[in-house]
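Thread title: Can someone regenerate the structure for this chain?

I was given the following input by a collaborator and told the matching structure tokens would be attached. They weren't. Posting the sequence so someone can regenerate them.
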Amino acid sequence: MLKGKEFFEDITKDIQSFVNGKYSFNIGDCWAEGLLYVSDEAYSENHENTDESEIRDAVDEWYPDNHYDSMNRKMNREPKGGADLQKMYPKLV
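Best answer:
Regenerated them for you:
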């Protein structure tokens, strides 16, 4: 979803189009804040609610150390892509 509909449809048809280098993909260059709200939006589609943040509130309550709005994060490595991701996560790919 971060790279658009065409990207999503292409890799859905053939995952090799992602791992073979056809696409340049650096997760560090993507703006993905909207993904933080997907669970709340899905919940709202299926439940009568007015808050629209039940899931985020529950996660915050259950895991108080996971503040996804916090900017105090650092990766312990450079972002990987393509063939490197396939090597790191072969079962996922």
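The helical segments are 5-13, 16-19, 38-46, 54-62, 82-88.
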